[in-house]
Amino acid sequence: MAPLITHIYTADPSAHVFNGKLYIYPSHDRETDIQFNDNGDQYDMVDYHVFSLDTLHPSPGVVTDHGAVLRMEDIPWVSKQLWAPDAAYKDGKYYLYFPARDKEGIFRIGVAEGPSPHGPFVPDANAIPGSYSIDPACFVDDDNQAYLYFGGLWGGQLQCYAGNTETYNPSLQGPHERTGDQPSQGPRVAVLSSDMHSFASPPVELPILDPETNAPIAADDHDRRFFEAAWLHKARGRYYLSYSTGDTHFLCYATSSSPLGPFVYGGRILEPVLGWTTHHSIVEFEGRTYLFYHDCELSKGVDHLRSVKVKEIFYDDEGRILTTTAD
């Protein structure tokens, strides 16, 4: 599968259908001299572009780059690293959610509002109160209630927060996480307020349960435990929480009858691609279901220079997502 976008490097694609058109909200990779490290310092992004296209079948149509719709210098609370964003629509307005380091080097989540899917987006002066870590993903349910899913280990700092607390422990920065038979850390979810700019209640952890034992997946089970890149979509009356396992490079999913869980592990979606990890989204468009992801093929394996790709995926008769490879 060829990259969708080749004139700049893009990663972490969040795909949405607005007004019958497909929009992609990725992070924007750029060249840097910062050496690879597990804290993620080499991912030194400073702005967001929005892309759109009219069709994916039988082949992708022309991709339109709507330009940089939000820049780091426009956001008062940010110091660096505009990482993976997401977008949402509710009640006539569009929202762009994004993580970044604040002036103290701690990742928070911000929100910007705009009149159209490609902005212009105006950011709030401050991060969302009570927010932390990275990889926000906004899901607006059929009843118009919106939720924000987020969290990422290691460079994403989720391991610095114990339980459902906002207290940051700086001694746990870097590649630390729970070990052994301890329950692995799950992503966080917060119910969003009606105006989409704050949390209606404090974030809570979403444990991912083993289907055999009904216990949280163990911390040492790196093939199945959550690492980053939570994404929620709904299909066939079921909620699918998908995520990256990080250092083992799988995309996996779990299912629930509620957007607030509990979620039970369901299987893998994508086998490893070229690059340290991947970050994805799943969207229905033109009657088909598509997986958006990224790899480093275009940059010939340079980990921090990634490119967005897309492929169709399928469910079996019981609603399980069929495991696939990138080709």
TrEMBL record:
Gene3D superfamilies: Glycosyl hydrolase domain, family 43. GO terms for molecular function: hydrolase activity, hydrolyzing O-glycosyl compounds. The record marks D135 as: Important for catalytic activity, responsible for pKa modulation of the active site Glu and correct orientation of both the proton donor and substrate. GO terms for biological process: carbohydrate metabolic process. It holds the Pfam family Glyco_hydro_43. The keyword Zinc-finger does not apply. CDD domains: GH43_CoXyl43_like (cd18619). Residues 169-188 are annotated as: Disordered. Transmembrane segments: none annotated. Keywords: Carbohydrate metabolism, Glycosidase, Hydrolase. The keyword Hydrolase applies. Belongs to the glycosyl hydrolase 43 family. This is Glycoside hydrolase family 43. It comes from Pochonia chlamydosporia 170.
